[in-house]
Amino acid sequence: MLDIGVTKLAIIGGIALVVIGPERLPGLARMIGTLMGRAQRYVADVKAEVSRSMDLDELKKMKETMEDAARDVGQSIKTGASEFEKQWSDATSDTPASSLAGDVAPSYPQYRHPGKKWRLKQGATPQWYKARAGIRTKALSGAARVARYRPHKFN
Protein backbone atom coordinates (compact mmCIF):
# COMPACT_ATOMS: atom_id res chain seq x y z
CA MET A 1 0.00 0.00 0.00
CA LEU A 2 1.00 3.58 0.31
CA ASP A 3 3.58 4.31 2.94
CA ILE A 4 2.65 7.85 3.87
CA GLY A 5 4.42 9.16 6.92
CA VAL A 6 4.25 12.48 8.75
CA THR A 7 7.05 14.04 6.67
CA LYS A 8 5.38 13.11 3.37
CA LEU A 9 2.04 14.53 4.60
CA ALA A 10 3.81 17.78 5.59
CA ILE A 11 5.43 18.06 2.13
CA ILE A 12 2.08 17.39 0.36
CA GLY A 13 0.37 19.96 2.64
CA GLY A 14 3.03 22.57 1.88
CA ILE A 15 2.74 22.04 -1.90
CA ALA A 16 -1.08 22.20 -1.65
CA LEU A 17 -0.82 25.46 0.30
CA VAL A 18 1.37 27.03 -2.38
CA VAL A 19 -0.62 25.71 -5.37
CA ILE A 20 -4.20 26.10 -4.07
CA GLY A 21 -3.81 29.07 -1.79
CA PRO A 22 -4.69 29.68 1.83
CA GLU A 23 -8.26 30.87 1.04
CA ARG A 24 -9.48 27.70 -0.70
CA LEU A 25 -7.42 25.15 1.27
CA PRO A 26 -9.90 24.67 4.22
CA GLY A 27 -12.83 24.02 1.83
CA LEU A 28 -10.72 21.59 -0.20
CA ALA A 29 -9.63 19.77 2.98
CA ARG A 30 -13.30 19.51 4.08
CA MET A 31 -14.29 18.12 0.66
CA ILE A 32 -11.41 15.59 0.72
CA GLY A 33 -12.49 14.53 4.25
CA THR A 34 -16.08 13.94 3.15
CA LEU A 35 -14.92 12.00 0.08
CA MET A 36 -12.64 9.86 2.26
CA GLY A 37 -15.55 9.23 4.67
CA ARG A 38 -17.78 8.15 1.78
CA ALA A 39 -15.04 5.86 0.47
CA GLN A 40 -14.60 4.28 3.91
CA ARG A 41 -18.37 3.73 4.26
CA TYR A 42 -18.48 2.19 0.78
CA VAL A 43 -15.61 -0.17 1.64
CA ALA A 44 -17.32 -1.10 4.93
CA ASP A 45 -20.60 -1.82 3.07
CA VAL A 46 -18.78 -4.01 0.55
CA LYS A 47 -17.04 -5.91 3.38
CA ALA A 48 -20.39 -6.42 5.16
CA GLU A 49 -22.02 -7.66 1.95
CA VAL A 50 -19.17 -10.11 1.32
CA SER A 51 -19.37 -11.41 4.88
CA ARG A 52 -23.18 -11.79 4.57
CA SER A 53 -22.79 -13.75 1.35
CA MET A 54 -20.16 -15.97 3.00
CA ASP A 55 -22.49 -16.56 5.96
CA LEU A 56 -25.32 -17.32 3.54
CA ASP A 57 -23.16 -19.88 1.75
CA GLU A 58 -22.27 -21.48 5.07
CA LEU A 59 -25.96 -21.58 6.06
CA LYS A 60 -26.85 -23.19 2.72
CA LYS A 61 -24.20 -25.87 3.28
CA MET A 62 -25.48 -26.43 6.81
CA LYS A 63 -29.07 -26.67 5.52
CA GLU A 64 -28.04 -29.26 2.93
CA THR A 65 -26.26 -31.36 5.55
CA MET A 66 -29.30 -31.19 7.86
CA GLU A 67 -31.64 -32.18 5.01
CA ASP A 68 -29.38 -35.11 4.12
CA ALA A 69 -29.32 -36.22 7.76
CA ALA A 70 -33.11 -35.94 8.00
CA ARG A 71 -33.51 -37.91 4.78
CA ASP A 72 -31.22 -40.65 6.14
CA VAL A 73 -33.18 -40.79 9.40
CA GLY A 74 -36.46 -41.01 7.47
CA GLN A 75 -35.16 -43.87 5.38
CA SER A 76 -33.89 -45.74 8.43
CA ILE A 77 -37.29 -45.29 10.10
CA LYS A 78 -39.08 -46.62 7.02
CA THR A 79 -36.86 -49.69 6.86
CA GLY A 80 -37.23 -50.25 10.60
CA ALA A 81 -41.01 -49.89 10.35
CA SER A 82 -41.23 -52.38 7.50
CA GLU A 83 -39.10 -54.87 9.47
CA PHE A 84 -41.27 -54.29 12.53
CA GLU A 85 -44.46 -54.85 10.53
CA LYS A 86 -43.05 -58.10 9.15
CA GLN A 87 -42.05 -59.29 12.63
CA TRP A 88 -45.43 -58.24 14.02
CA SER A 89 -47.36 -60.08 11.33
CA ASP A 90 -45.23 -63.17 11.91
CA ALA A 91 -45.74 -62.98 15.67
CA THR A 92 -49.50 -62.36 15.58
CA SER A 93 -50.40 -64.96 13.00
CA ASP A 94 -51.54 -68.36 14.26
CA THR A 95 -49.75 -70.20 11.52
CA PRO A 96 -46.38 -69.46 9.96
CA ALA A 97 -46.39 -66.82 7.23
CA SER A 98 -45.28 -69.34 4.59
CA SER A 99 -48.34 -71.58 5.11
CA LEU A 100 -50.99 -68.81 5.04
CA ALA A 101 -53.28 -68.81 2.04
CA GLY A 102 -53.60 -65.47 0.27
CA ASP A 103 -57.42 -65.50 0.13
CA VAL A 104 -58.05 -65.87 3.88
CA ALA A 105 -58.63 -62.55 5.64
CA PRO A 106 -57.93 -62.26 9.37
CA SER A 107 -61.07 -62.13 11.52
CA TYR A 108 -61.41 -59.58 14.26
CA PRO A 109 -64.07 -59.49 16.99
CA GLN A 110 -67.14 -57.47 16.05
CA TYR A 111 -67.65 -54.14 17.84
CA ARG A 112 -70.49 -54.09 20.34
CA HIS A 113 -71.85 -50.83 21.72
CA PRO A 114 -71.77 -50.88 25.53
CA GLY A 115 -75.35 -49.54 25.73
CA LYS A 116 -74.51 -46.91 28.32
CA LYS A 117 -76.09 -43.49 28.51
CA TRP A 118 -72.91 -41.48 28.91
CA ARG A 119 -74.72 -38.13 29.20
CA LEU A 120 -76.68 -39.30 32.24
CA LYS A 121 -74.93 -38.70 35.53
CA GLN A 122 -75.60 -41.50 37.95
CA GLY A 123 -74.84 -41.33 41.61
CA ALA A 124 -73.91 -44.18 43.89
CA THR A 125 -77.14 -43.92 45.91
CA PRO A 126 -80.22 -45.29 44.12
CA GLN A 127 -83.11 -42.95 43.35
CA TRP A 128 -85.68 -45.06 45.22
CA TYR A 129 -83.65 -44.74 48.43
CA LYS A 130 -83.37 -40.98 48.03
CA ALA A 131 -87.12 -40.67 47.46
CA ARG A 132 -87.94 -42.82 50.52
CA ALA A 133 -85.41 -41.04 52.76
CA GLY A 134 -86.44 -37.54 51.59
CA ILE A 135 -83.03 -36.63 50.16
CA ARG A 136 -83.09 -33.78 47.70
CA THR A 137 -82.30 -35.03 44.20
CA LYS A 138 -82.36 -31.79 42.25
CA ALA A 139 -80.54 -28.53 42.92
CA LEU A 140 -82.63 -25.41 43.46
CA SER A 141 -81.59 -21.87 42.65
CA GLY A 142 -81.67 -19.28 45.38
CA ALA A 143 -84.90 -17.68 44.18
CA ALA A 144 -86.63 -21.07 43.83
CA ARG A 145 -85.52 -22.08 47.32
CA VAL A 146 -86.91 -18.82 48.82
CA ALA A 147 -90.20 -19.29 46.98
CA ARG A 148 -90.50 -22.88 48.13
CA TYR A 149 -89.70 -22.41 51.78
CA ARG A 150 -91.26 -18.97 52.33
CA PRO A 151 -93.96 -19.07 54.97
CA HIS A 152 -97.43 -18.52 53.55
CA LYS A 153 -99.41 -15.55 54.79
CA PHE A 154 -102.96 -16.30 55.80
CA ASN A 155 -105.60 -13.54 55.59
UniProtKB/TrEMBL annotation:
<keyword id="KW-0472">Membrane</keyword>
<protein>
    <recommendedName>
        <fullName>Sec-independent protein translocase protein TatB</fullName>
    </recommendedName>
</protein>
<keyword id="KW-0811">Translocation</keyword>
<keyword id="KW-0812">Transmembrane</keyword>
<comment type="subunit">
    <text>The Tat system comprises two distinct complexes: a TatABC complex, containing multiple copies of TatA, TatB and TatC subunits, and a separate TatA complex, containing only TatA subunits. Substrates initially bind to the TatABC complex, which probably triggers association of the separate TatA complex to form the active translocon.</text>
</comment>
<keyword id="KW-0813">Transport</keyword>
<dbReference type="GO" id="GO:0033281">
    <property type="term" value="C:TAT protein transport complex"/>
</dbReference>
<dbReference type="Pfam" id="PF02416">
    <property type="entry name" value="TatA_B_E"/>
</dbReference>
<feature type="compositionally biased region" description="Polar residues">
    <location>
        <begin position="89"/>
        <end position="98"/>
    </location>
</feature>
<dbReference type="InterPro" id="IPR018448">
    <property type="entry name" value="TatB"/>
</dbReference>
<feature type="region of interest" description="Disordered">
    <location>
        <begin position="83"/>
        <end position="114"/>
    </location>
</feature>
<keyword id="KW-0997">Cell inner membrane</keyword>
<comment type="similarity">
    <text>Belongs to the TatB family.</text>
</comment>
<keyword id="KW-1003">Cell membrane</keyword>
<keyword id="KW-0653">Protein transport</keyword>
<keyword id="KW-1133">Transmembrane helix</keyword>
<dbReference type="GO" id="GO:0043953">
    <property type="term" value="P:protein transport by the Tat complex"/>
</dbReference>
<dbReference type="InterPro" id="IPR003369">
    <property type="entry name" value="TatA/B/E"/>
</dbReference>
<dbReference type="GO" id="GO:0008320">
    <property type="term" value="F:protein transmembrane transporter activity"/>
</dbReference>
<comment type="function">
    <text>Part of the twin-arginine translocation (Tat) system that transports large folded proteins containing a characteristic twin-arginine motif in their signal peptide across membranes. Together with TatC, TatB is part of a receptor directly interacting with Tat signal peptides. TatB may form an oligomeric binding site that transiently accommodates folded Tat precursor proteins before their translocation.</text>
</comment>
